[in-house]
Write a structure and sequence with these properties.
Blueprint (H helix, E strand, L loop, with lengths): L9 E6 L1 H4 L8 H16 L3 E6 L2 H8 L9 H24 L5 E6 L1 H5 L1 H16 L3 E6 L6 H5 L2 H11 L4 E6 L20 E3 L3 H6 L11 H13 L4 E6 L5 H6 L6 E4 L4 H11 L5 E5 L1 H10 L8 E5 L7 E5 L5 E6 L4 H7 L7 H5 L13 E3 L1
Helix pairs in contact: 2-4, 3-4, 8-10
The protein binds adenosine-5'-diphosphate and the ligand N[C@@H](CCC(=O)OP(=O)(O)O)C(=O)O.
The site of ligand VHF has 18 residues, from helix 3, strand 4 and helix 8.
Pathway: Amino-acid biosynthesis; L-proline biosynthesis; L-glutamate 5-semialdehyde from L-glutamate: step 1/2
Subcellular location: Cytoplasm
Main location: cytoplasm
């Protein structure tokens, strides 16, 4: 068996609280420096990497001199806000040593459920990757209460994998992978080397967190793999202190537990788009635009739109019709219905003059477009 990471070009790496904070004793600077070095090697292989890192609360607890995890939600939020400064600082320094810039991105689950914010987060992250930056993501703990109680970045990692259609999610934790039972409790537990993401028998094997600092345990990791698989991303769960784990995975060595996605990436995305049956609006295209979309695999530009039906917001799914009224494609719109009415039949270079801003030269980018 070869690791799926060898073929993956866009990878989400999630490092858990139990790892990054070395069981709660502040941030483990040398471990973080080693992951940064490995990610730099992955980048040199041409892979794009997004890091989802926990550890803000644990670092904040240390800085604010809490000896135990506070139970008061607002004290937890204060810890997260203080500790996030430490996290950002250490990642920036560690990646700088390899000539790589980092960006701090704080997200909530609600951000990713909102179509417009979803599209904005997606565009920002893909732009950062294009600019050669490593985005460092954490939950925006200041504004949420539910997530902070459960403290689960595994789910966030999967949501980000769906968001930017990553090929793989690597969850680094304090165990060598998923075992048949919690190895802290069952000495006979054995490592599961490979399984299909979403296989329900895995959920029964996975227990809660074993350490005092980790929260979600294995169950959130198994569920994250199931979620990541919805957009076709494979998941690997591995021990974060395994020597050069990320680099060896990229060389094809199977390490930890590999949970493969049953559906291919593009099929999964198409399915998601086609499932949005209730599209909010329609645009009618001229023959030239129909040709570009259906024959040449191009994006839809406003110049090819001749009419708009219905109301829709940025980020919603709209249907593209040809002049006879036949639906030919569906996709996520970069502009609202009223904006499209103003920019249709115009070239993309005129968008700024008409609207005063540009969300992108395309009305629907080809990555967000499915032909019917
Ligand atoms: N089947 C299992 N296999 C491996 N670890 C398990 C299993 N069930 C429960 N665990 C526990 O999950 C813990 C990892 O989860 P957690 O502490 O939340 O880590 P992280 O902070 O990396 O998210 C392990 O230390 C282990 O005790
Ligand atoms: N966002 C918080 C907690 C997230 C968290 O601990 O998640 P996990 O690593 O999945 O146990 C933090 O940075 O401390």
């Amino acid at each position: 068996m070869k690791s799926v990471i060898q073929q993956a070009s866009r990878i989400i790496v999630k490092v858990g609280s139990s790892l990054v904070t070395n069981e709660g004793r502040g941030l483990d600077h040398s471990a973080i420096a080693r992951w940064a070095a490995q990610i730099a090697s992955l980048r040199a292989l041409g892979k794009e990497v997004v890091l989802v890192s926990s550890g803000a609360i644990a670092e904040g607890m240390l800085r604010l001199q809490f000896s135990a995890r506070p139970t008061d939600i607002h004290e937890l939020q204060a810890c997260a806000a203080v500790g996030q400064m430490g996290l950002a600082q250490i990642y920036e320094t560690s990646f700088r040593a390899h000539g790589i810039g980092t960006a701090q991105v704080l997200l909530t689950h609600a951000d990713l459920a909102d179509r417009e914010r979803y599209l904005n987060a997606r565009s920002t992250l893909t732009t950062l990757l294009r600019l050669g930056v490593v985005p460092i993501i954490n939950e925006n703990d200041t504004v949420v209460t539910d997530e902070i109680k459960f403290g689960d970045n595994d789910t966030l990692g999967a949501l980000v994998a769906n968001l930017i259609e990553a090929d793989a999610l690597v969850i680094l934790t304090d165990q060598r992978g998923l075992y048949s039972a919690d190895p802290r409790k069952d000495p006979a537990a054995y490592l599961i080397e490979e399984a299909q993401a979403g296989d329900e028998s895995l959920e029964a094997m996975a227990g809660g967190a074993g350490s005092s600092i980790g929260r979600g345990g294995m169950l959130t990791k198994v569920l994250a793999a199931k979620r990541a698989a919805r957009s076709g991303a494979h998941t690997v769960i591995a021990w974060g202190r395994e020597e050069d784990a990320l680099v060896r995975l990229a060389q094809g060595e199977p390490i930890g537990t590999q949970l493969t996605a049953p559906t291919a990436r593009l099929t999964a995305r198409r399915q998601w788009m086609v499932d949005h049956l209730h599209t909010s609006g329609e645009v009618v295209l001229d023959a030239g635009a129909v040709q570009k979309l259906t024959q040449e695999g191009k994006s839809l530009l406003p110049i090819g739109v001749i009419a708009v039906n219905g109301k829709f917001r940025r980020g919603e799914v709209i249907t593209c019709l040809d002049e006879s009224g036949k639906a030919i494609a569906r996709g996520l719109t970069n502009y609202t219905g009223s904006e499209v009415r103003r920019i249709m039949r115009h070239s993309s270079s005129e968008i700024e003059a008409i609207l005063g801003y540009v969300e992108g030269p395309e009305l629907i980018h080809r990555d967000n477009l499915v032909l019917l």
